[in-house]
Amino acid sequence: MTASARLLTTLRLGACALLFATTFSSQAAQTAAPPAPPLPAVADTPVSPAKQALVDQLLTLWHPESVALVMVQRPAADAVQQSRIAMQGRVSAEKQEATMKAISADAQRYIDEATPIAQAAAAKAVPQTAGKMLAQQFSEDELKQLIALLQSPVKHKFEQLVPQLERAVGDKVATDAGPQVQPKLDTMKQAIATKLRTAAMVP
What we know:
Layout: H1 3-21, H2 25-31, H3 49-62, H4 67-87, H5 93-137, H6 140-150, H7 153-201
């Protein structure tokens, strides 16, 4: 396995498992996804100053603490989306707009209050988890290769192009499959709205 492949495997273990266990747990149960792989054991072995400097540089380039933002924002986004769905067909458009505005304000307030807490926890957790895992799983030479990979102008160019690539694929799929998928989507929305209205009327 190449150093870059090992980066994708090792660096994502902690972040993906954490997201899986918290923000995605209900979704995983619904889709019967396989359990996340176990985290590798982290030993408190001494790390040379030179290797620690490489680990610190890699963490600076990678920004694993961004997982905290996802963990905070995901529940808020889900709550807003579920609220919008729950009100469809049950309240007037004017009342729905006013209610969604208030709900969005509540969600933003939660994000503003929770984000600094999660960021502080992530800043403390990264060296204790990802930092130790990197030092344990990679040699100094491999860390240098990973740093060069993350600093590569070709990688930067590719990442800048990714949104355009994804949009191109999405636009083509929407054009080709949209006429067939949209009626099914409308049917699903109508069925859900009907069940919500029925549930609201039943004592």
